[in-house]
Amino acid sequence: MCGVFGAVLPAGEPTEAANVAALGLFALQHRGQESAGLAVSDGEQLMLYKDLGMISSVLDERRLPSLRGRLAIAHCRYSTTGSTLWENAQPTFRLGPQRAIAIGHNGNLVNTRQLLDELPGGRARLPASTDTELLTALLADEHAADTVEALQRVLPRVRGAYSLVVLDERRVIGVRDPFGFRPLVLGRMPHPSGESGLWADDDATTGWCLASETAALDIVGAAYVRDVEPGELVVLEPGVAPRSVRFAEATPALCVFELIYFARPDTYMEGRNLYEARRRMGIQLAREHPAETDMVMPVPDTGAPAAAGYAEEAGIPYREGLVRNRYTGRTFIQPSQTMRQRGVTIKLNPLREVVRGRRLTVVDDSIVRGNTTKQIVALLRRAGATEVHLRISAPPIYHPCFYGIDTQIETELIAATHSEEEIRAFVGADSLGYLSIRGVLAALDLPYERFCFACFDGRYPEPVPYDAASRKFMLEEAVAGHA
Ligand code: SF4
User: Fold this and answer.
1) pLDDT for the residue 461
2) Who contacts 459 (Cβ-Cβ below 8 Å, separation ≥6)?
3) Measured between alpha carbons, how far is 17 from 7 in angstroms, rounded to an integer?
4) What is the rounded distance in angstroms from the CA atom of residue 172 to the CA atom of residue 150?
5) In angstroms, rounded to a whole number, what is the distance separating the alpha carbons of residues 298 and 256?
6) Cα gap 349→463, rounded to integer Å
7) What are the backbone dihedrals phi and psi of residue 311, each rounded to the nearest 5 degrees, phi first?
8) How many angstroms separate the most distant Cα atoms in the chain?
9) Where are the beta strands (DSSP E) in 53-99?
């Protein structure tokens, strides 16, 4: 999972596109904390700046003024292929025989091995070990009149999850794979003078942007126009209305985990506000798994909407029993197990006055490996909780994800190798209950067919060549193989 943002500003715009893109990306920090970067075009040439670290430390005031131009793309990374190295930060950039191009990619390709075989010169030509680097090289090499045509030729050979922001000298292009696994939305920015009304309808004076989530549009003052459709390219050029080009038929399968957990609660997806959707998941969870306790509390911050819904439905008081340090990253998103284990105690501190002597219903949004949950239950017991009843507002994760979430090894998933009773015993809870797939759909009030539920039910929308796609470091291994 990563965050992407793209901005195209009209002529005469006093604000540089880099500022808008950095601001938009800042709203997407939760989607990736390993690296950040920005690529701009002034209409003639591309410039790139990227580094490891959080967005605010990479894209600070010292860097942004030198990145001039009306077109920009930005990216924050959470690795699903390749190690946490500077080379693997994005946007990627390539000056190929046919064109200069930069790409920010959210998702994960599943036929990387096959695509590598198509690249003349092979792995030795790639400075980085990510699937995005490979895709960038293929596009920069492709004999085609322009970037749009190159994308139309290359993308039908690409399998897996990709929501892209692509930059060349003259345009920013938004791309979504035919399944639309990862979100991507189009927004319209008003002219800063405000002369043509709040939302300008004159294409010559309107700015356009692309973002992983609608919350990022809010932050830059843009209005949501529509989703980029699965199998669609949206071409943005200064002073021109967005142009839609379809490169594949749509078979929508948006990642349902985006709605359950990953995306911000103030984001809208599939016409649903995610805070409200999660609150309704909590209501369903209370119906499916009631517990007789003294209070309902969330694992902050992401468990809060579902906990509020649970408490409302169960008629049990809602309290906050854990305080989260806001200045550390998400536990799940840290790349290594060592970091994750250290993470939870740095991040969460129990409110002893609230939990002592009480029977607790603790609501969280997922259990992946189980270690974090185990530590949280232990923290609450040490703080004096008499009972801990764990309720999860998602179904058990039985299967790995190959479409951009870093759960690629089945044996790391506790639900894949343990029964529910074994998980309860491992995490040390008095009882455990997961929301069913049916419960998720009831809360969303949307049909199953609209989503990918593969990590819950194993029905992968895009067939996955397991041996190749399950290896996060495949392109690094390809180098070792060549050596
Ligand atoms: Fe999302 Fe799970 Fe599908 Fe991956 S497998 S895209 S995490 S629903």
Assistant:
1) 94
2) 453
3) 6
4) 14
5) 21
6) 42
7) -60, -40
8) 71
9) 71-77, 92-95
Region of poorest pLDDT, from 128-132, 178-182, 225-229, 290-294: 128-132
pLDDT band, residue 198 (cuts 50/70/90): very low
| pLDDT surpasses 90 at 392 | yes
Report the pLDDT averaged over residues 200-212. Answer: 80
**CA-CA distance, 276 to 114, in Å (whole number)?**
42
Among 163, 366, 405, 462, which residue has the most ligand 1 atoms within 8 Å of its CB, making it the best to mutate? 405
| pTM across the whole model | 0.91
Residues comprising the chain, all counted: 483
Is 2 assigned a catalytic role?
Answer: yes
Count Cβ atoms within 10 A of the Cβ of residue 294 and give its class: 0-12 exposed, 13-18 middle, 19 or more buried: middle
User: How far is Cα 454 from Cα 317, in angstroms, rounded to an integer?
Assistant: 35
Pocket test for ligand 1, best of 109, 181, 403, 466 (most atoms within 8 A of CB): 403
* CA of residue 407 to ligand 1 center, whole Å: 9
Q: How far is the CA of 419 from the centre of ligand 1 (A)?
A: 21
- Inter-residue contact 288 to 433 (CB < 8 Å): yes
